[in-house]
Write a structure and sequence with these properties.
alpha/beta; globular
Length: 361
C-alpha cells in the first residue's frame, strides 16, 4: 500500500506544524490538486451514541449502517500518512463506547501524532480515564452543553448531566493527585439562543469540576428541513442581540476572575469572533480540503466533520471510499479536486455555502 508522501511540507519554512493550527499548513489560494498529504485525519471511530442530542442529525436519521471502525480499517488509513501531525478520533458517535479506543490512541502516539477527541463524558469512569492517560491522549474535550440538568436534557436528550459532572471532576482530581498533565481537559458549549444566558454559570460549573479551559462552539444547522434545536432561529451566528452579547461579556469576566481560558473553536481566538461572518464568501477561507481527511466508521471519505451537520445525505459530498481506494487515489481524485475548485469559486458546495474556517473544531 503506497504512502501518500513521507512528510508534509511545512508552510513556508522549516518550522514544525502546530497541531492546534494545522489548517495553516495550506496556502490560502491552493488549487484543486495537492502536492502534500493531509496533516490531520478525522477518524470516526464509531457512529454509535448513547445520547439523543437535539442538534445532531444522527438522532433523526440513519446516516450509515451502525459500526465501530475496525482495527484493520483504522490502521489501513493511519499507515498511509506516516508524517501525520494530528488525529481527531470522533465523528457523529461517542468515541468512548469503542473498546479499542485506548489502543488506537497508543498506535498514533507511537508515531508522534497529536491525538484528541470530543466526548459526552457519560462513560468517563476511572478505568476508562486511566486507559486514556496511559495511552498518551493529548486532549480530551467534554461537551457539557448546559449549566444545569434541565437544560442538558433539552439539548442532549437524556438525563446524564450530574453523572458527567461527577465523572469529569473525578478524572481531573485523579490527574491532579497523580501529576498527569495530559490529556488537556476542556469543557464545550454549543452557543445558541436556548442556552446563551447560561454562559456565565457554565464557566462556573466547569471550574467546579476542575476544568480550566472553556470553549464556545457555533451551532451548525441545515438550511432546509431543520431538526430539533439545530435551526436558524437558535443560531447566534450573525444574529446575537445586545442582551445576548451581555452574557458573553459576563462569561469572559467570570473566566478571567477564576483564572480560566474562555475561547472559541477553531481559528477564532475570541468567542465573539466565532459568531461573526468573515466577508461575503467565508467558505473561501476554509483550508480543510487541503489539510484534512475525514473518514466515517464505514470508511467513507467526507470533506470535514461539519458536512454531516450542514447538508442532508452523505451521497452529496462523498469523496471516496477507504475500504476500496488508497488515500492517494482519494486525495487527488477527481471528486476531491472538483470539490476544492468549487470551494474557491462563487458557487461553493452546498455543505460549505454558509460555513467557513471559524466553524472548525
Amino acid at each position: 500500500m503506497d504512502d501518500l508522501i513521507d512528510k508534509p511540507a511545512p508552510p513556508g519554512d522549516d518550522k514544525p506544524i502546530d497541531p492546534r493550527r494545522y489548517f495553516e499548513a495550506a496556502a490560502v489560494r491552493a488549487g484543486g490538486e495537492v502536492e502534500t498529504p493531509p496533516v490531520c485525519l478525522y477518524l470516526e471511530v464509531t457512529n454509535r451514541c448513547n445520547l439523543l442530542c437535539t442538534t445532531c442529525p444522527r438522532t433523526y436519521a440513519k446516516l450509515e449502517p451502525p459500526a465501530d471502525m475496525s482495527w484493520a480499517l483504522f490502521t489501513r488509513i493511519a499507515d498511509q500518512v506516516p508524517g501525520l501531525t494530528r488525529a481527531v478520533l470522533h465523528g457523529v458517535g461517542e468515541p468512548m463506547l469503542v473498546r479499542n479506543l485506548p489502543k488506537m490512541v497508543r498506535y498514533l502516539k507511537d508515531r508522534g501524532v497529536y491525538v484528541l477527541f470530543n466526548t459526552n463524558g457519560t462513560v468517563l469512569n476511572e478505568k476508562n480515564g486511566r486507559a486514556l492517560i496511559e495511552a498518551g491522549l493529548d486532549e480530551l474535550r467534554v461537551s457539557f452543553d448546559a449549566s444545569n440538568a434541565k437544560s442538558y436534557i433539552k439539548v442532549r436528550g437524556k438525563d446524564y448531566f450530574n453523572r458527567i459532572l461527577k465523572n469529569v471532576k473525578a478524572f481531573r482530581a485523579l490527574q491532579e493527585r497523580e501529576g498527569h498533565l495530559k490529556p488537556r481537559v476542556s469543557a464545550w458549549l454549543t452557543g445558541m439562543k436556548e442556552t446563551i444566558e447560561e454562559l456565565p454559570a457554565f464557566v462556573r460549573v466547569a471550574a467546579e469540576t476542575g476544568v480550566r479551559e472553556v470553549y464556545l462552539q457555533r451551532l451548525v444547522f441545515f438550511d432546509q428541513d431543520q431538526i430539533g434545536l439545530a435551526r436558524p432561529d437558535q443560531a447566534l451566528f450573525e444574529s446575537m442581540e445586545k442582551g445576548e452579547a451581555h452574557y458573553l461579556k459576563e462569561a469572559e469576566a467570570v473566566a478571567k476572575t477564576l483564572g480560566m481560558t474562555f475561547s472559541a473553536s477553531g481559528a477564532a481566538s475570541e468567542p465573539g469572533m466565532s459568531l461573526k461572518k468573515r466577508g461575503d464568501s467565508p467558505w473561501s477561507l476554509c483550508r480543510r480540503p487541503w489539510t484534512v481527511m475525514y473518514f466515517t466508521a464505514n470508511g467513507r471519505a467526507l470533506p470535514c466533520c461539519i458536512a454531516p451537520f450542514s447538508q442532508h445525505g452523505y451521497e452529496n459530498y462523498t469523496l471516496g471510499d477507504a475500504t476500496q481506494d488508497s488515500l492517494r487515489e482519494i486525495w487527488n481524485g477527481a471528486r476531491y479536486q472538483d470539490f476544492r475548485d468549487s470551494l474557491l469559486s462563487d458557487q461553493p458546495p452546498q455543505a460549505c455555502a454558509s460555513c467557513g474556517l471559524r466553524w472548525s473544531l
